Amino acid sequence: xxxxxxxxxxxxxxxxxxxxxxxxxxxxxxxxxxxxxxxxxxxxxxxxxxxxxxxxxxxxxxxxxxxxxxxxxxxxxxxxxxxxxxxxxxxxxxxxxxxxxxxxxxxxxxxxxxxxxxxx
Amino acid sequence: xxxxxxxxxxxxxxxxxxxxxxxxxxxxxxxxxxxxxxxxxxxxxxxxxxxxxxxxxxxxxxxxxxxxxxxxxxxxxxxxxxxxxxxxxxxxxxxxxxxxxxxxxxxxxxxxxxxxxxxxxxxxxxxxxxxxxxxxxxxxxxxxxxxxxxxxxxxxxxxxxxxxxxxxxxxxxxxxxxxxxxxxxxxxxxxxxxxxxxxxxxxxxxxxxxxxxxxxxxxxxxxxxxxxxxxxxxxxxxxxxxxxxxxxxxxxxxxxxxx
Lengths: 120, 259
Ligand SMILES: Nc1ncnc2c1ncn2[C@@H]1O[C@H](COP(=O)(O)OP(=O)(O)OP(=O)(O)O)[C@@H](O)[C@H]1O
Ligand SMILES: [Mg+2]
Fold this sequence. Notes:
The complex is a heterodimer. Chain A is mainly alpha-helical.
């Protein structure tokens, strides 16, 4: 993954406030490949890093960095069970602050540039 | 493999709760363990069809959402107490587990005022399926699009969308179909309900399928017997040999079939 691209996502995320999670209405507004990824993660409830790598067709470093940024902003949560690390989408409580959607736009740009815009 | 089935409509009063209850009973009669959950927290009602009265409703979905108990503690095994038509015996080889929403004013007000954590609802769906060892979980929803409806659409294996032959329903259904596609719903089936018996069912089916590019699982006539039953029971159990029951069975079979 190009460090320049990741830096851009990082800057974008750094500029955002921590969100109380993603609402289902936010999910609808996500750009295509990301929406597919988020829908899939919601259905699976929790997934491991390797599963996300496979689904998004990205390498370990890129996936891990993306997840770290999302974690930091409260859009994804991480928990450990029996020595395994799982990630899940944090769905916002019904009443919550507006989530900044440009986070997703910048993420999509990055994914687009990495793999020509196709997830699965 | 267990399946989650959501029953939804854009507008109210289309017959979601009655259809959900009938599909639940028919799928259970086919030998499955079936859960049915009322996610219409603002205006619950499906428990009425299963004969669960408020006084016997000890715990509800609300208790689970507020962290007062585990989701499986809110499930009522309603199979044994189901009301059936005179001279009929309902054989529920599988079993029916109903998760009602509370009818207490305070509980409804609290949900409206404070909202609740939608993630908890998602966990609840999955935990119900695994802890009660369900073959099917049916979700009765609130009309329109809100957070819990969107979630139940997103996680369902089959979405059953109900509409009446009415212009407002037609437009609303177009919106819902688009939203369901955005949520990558696995399989969608349309049911047209309350159709005047004098209508041409075949041409209505074709018209609806052409409009939404989605299969119609069944067309249900406006039925006087259904009106008379007035949600006092589950239609297919009261009238096992009724033509409407036959149509409902046909829908249940499509829901159970592999997409
Ligand atoms: N095919 C039918 N023929 C006649 N009456 C029907 C038919 N289907 C449903 N009904 C009646 O329509 C009314 C509404 O049905 P139901 O409560 O199942 O709808 P709903 O979509 O769940 O409503 P809500 O949006 O309020 O939850 C009930 O009185 C029911 O008996
Ligand atoms: Mg209803």
